[in-house]
Amino acid sequence: MASLNSYLNFNGNTEEVFNFYKSVFGGEFSILTRFKDHPEACNGLPMAEQDGIMHIALPIGKNSILMATDVPSVMPKVTPGTNMSISITADTKAEADALFSGLSEGGKIDMPLTTMMWGDYFGMLTDKFDIQWMVSFNENNK
């Protein structure tokens, strides 16, 4: 069965926020990727933002991961209410497809499921109740 985690979006201060959360919860970041680590992610991104956080993950407890990104200035700024998604990690590609299909019914597909540069099969949607979801599957994480 899929696992659920919180995914936060920030306007350029993700590193500061997550260093604070790390001081509160303890532990170490399991992932910290900057935009510059993936040159294709830097297309159209100002040089000053290329050191920003593309993805960060902080395990909290036994089964939870708090994740986040800096939203580049070339995208709409996030505000309270648009700065959080529920992230689902599926156990199989078929499960990812089924969850994505079910959640997007009556909603809006923001990014169709596709294989991304970091290797995940990944997509984003807003359901019919205006809740933002991220669905992913990675063959290597089974």
Chart the SSEs and their pairings.
Blueprint: E1 3-10, H1 14-25, E2 31-34, E3 53-60, E4 64-70, E5 84-89, H2 93-104, E6 108-115, E7 121-126, E8 132-137
Parallel strand pairs: 1-4, 5-8
Antiparallel strand pairs: 1-5, 2-3, 3-4, 6-7, 7-8
Distance between the termini: 12 Å
What is the helix fraction of residues, given as a range? 10-25%
Unreliable spans are none
Q: Give the helix/strand class.
A: alpha+beta
Topology as a string of helices (H) and strands (E)? EHEEEEHEEE
Reading off the top of the CATH hierarchy, the class is best stated as: Alpha Beta
Cα-atom radius of gyration: 15 Å
Percent strand equals: 35-45%
Question: Strand order of the main beta sheet, please?
Answer: 2-3-4-1-5-8-7-6
| CATH homologous superfamily caption | 2,3-Dihydroxybiphenyl 1,2-Dioxygenase, domain 1
Number of domains: 1
> Which architecture name does CATH use?
Roll
Write down how many β-strands occur, each being a DSSP E stretch of 2 or more residues.
8
The 3D shape can be described as: globular
- CATH topology title: 2,3-Dihydroxybiphenyl 1,2-Dioxygenase, domain 1
Largest sheet, described in full? 8 strands, mixed
- Estimate the mean pLDDT confidence: 89
User: What is the number of helices?
Assistant: 2
Verbal overview:
The chain is globular and about 35 Å long. Strands 2-3-4-1-5-8-7-6 form an 8-stranded mixed sheet, with helices on one face. The relative contact order is 0.19. The longest helix has 12 residues, at 14-25. It has one domain (3-141): 2,3-Dihydroxybiphenyl 1,2-Dioxygenase, domain 1. It has helices spanning 14-25, 93-104; strands spanning 3-10, 31-34, 53-60, 64-70, 84-89, 108-115, 121-126, 132-137. The model has no long low-confidence stretch (mean pLDDT 89). By secondary structure, it is α+β, with helices and mostly antiparallel strands. The protein has 2 helices and 8 strands; from the N terminus they run βαββββαβββ. It starts with a strand and ends in a 5-residue tail after the last strand. 17% of the residues lie in helices and 37% in strands.
